[in-house]
């Protein structure tokens, strides 16, 4: 990543992607306190607004430390926070990154995930990416997360295999399906 990197704001047809602030706490809590949203996550649904406040701080610190980035995703029309997405980690030596995302369940099925992820992937695979040279983006999904798999496939990700028992949370081991998207395979939508 560039040193002193400015947070890269993005615009799509229907969405604005920018930084999360503490003013987003109610919106973020509402997303992460929904059982449906965290069903395939390694965390339980939030029960306190301190947890969402801590998460905002975690995301913003990760960007400051140049370890990853998380965008707030807002509807252009109303400004409502409807989700977050970003790169959980960058491995600048290996030229790869791991993508993550979630949306408020009352906004599922409207194409917002595909639209937002297309924009952030286009940014990191562009010639003037602020994150340096990247060649591979990885996503891990839990078996049964068909909506997430559908989004990844629409964006050109290929299913590469299943890593057996590679996750442990909620008191059990989880197989994770590994998806990858290489730079030459990506065509912005
Ligand atoms: C996965 C998620 C981000 C998708 O968001 P979204 O805005 O609804 O995604 P989109 O509308 O862009 O696309 C969803 C696609 O999945 C399909 N889909 C939805 N539910 C599905 C299901 N149960 N089985 C198969 N496909 C499904 C939709 O039909 C759509 O595909 P289409 O455009 O070809 O019809 C959203 O469901 C979510 O936030 N889930 C919880 C968090 C999560 O699991 N994050 C990913 C962790 S790997």
Report on the architecture of this protein:
With about 190 residues, the chain is of the alpha+beta class. It has a single domain, classed as Gcn5-related N-acetyltransferase (GNAT) (Aminopeptidase, 3-Layer(aba) Sandwich), CATH 3.40.630.30. Helix content is about 25%, strand content about 35%. The protein has five helices and eight strands. InterPro entries: Acyl_CoA_acyltransferase, GNAT_dom, N-acetyltransferase. Pfam families: Acetyltransf_3. It comes from Pseudoalteromonas spongiae. This is GNAT family N-acetyltransferase.
How confident overall, as mean pLDDT? 96
Sheet with the most strands?
A: 8 strands, mixed
Spatial shape: globular
Helix content: 25-40%
CATH architecture: 3-Layer(aba) Sandwich
- Name the CATH homologous superfamily: Gcn5-related N-acetyltransferase (GNAT)
- Tell me the number of strands: 8
Main sheet strand line-up: 1-2-3-4-5-6-8-7
Bound molecules: coenzyme A
Q: According to CATH, what is the topology?
A: Aminopeptidase
Pfam family, one: Acetyltransf_3
Organism: Pseudoalteromonas spongiae
Protein name: GNAT family N-acetyltransferase
InterPro entries: Acyl_CoA_acyltransferase, GNAT_dom, N-acetyltransferase
């Amino acid at each position: 990543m560039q040193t002193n990197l400015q947070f890269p704001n993005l615009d799509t047809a229907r969405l604005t992607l920018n930084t999360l602030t503490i003013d987003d706490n109610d919106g973020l809590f509402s997303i992460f306190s929904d059982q449906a949203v965290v069903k395939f996550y390694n965390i339980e649904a939030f029960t306190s607004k301190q947890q969402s406040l801590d998460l905002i701080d975690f995301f913003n610190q990760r960007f400051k430390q140049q370890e990853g980035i998380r965008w707030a995703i807002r509807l252009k029309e109303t400004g409502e926070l409807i989700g977050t997405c970003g790169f959980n980690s960058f491995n600048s030596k290996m030229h790869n990154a791991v993508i993550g995302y979630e949306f408020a369940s009352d906004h599922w099925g409207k194409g917002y995930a595909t639209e937002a992820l297309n924009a952030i992937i286009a940014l990191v695979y562009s010639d003037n990416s602020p994150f340096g040279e990247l060649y591979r983006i990885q996503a891990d999904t839990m078996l049964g997360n068909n909506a997430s798999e559908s989004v990844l496939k629409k964006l050109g990700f290929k299913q590469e295999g299943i890593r057996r028992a590679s996750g442990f949370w909620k008191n059990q081991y989880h197989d994770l399906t590994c998806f990858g998207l290489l730079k030459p395979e990506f065509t912005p939508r």
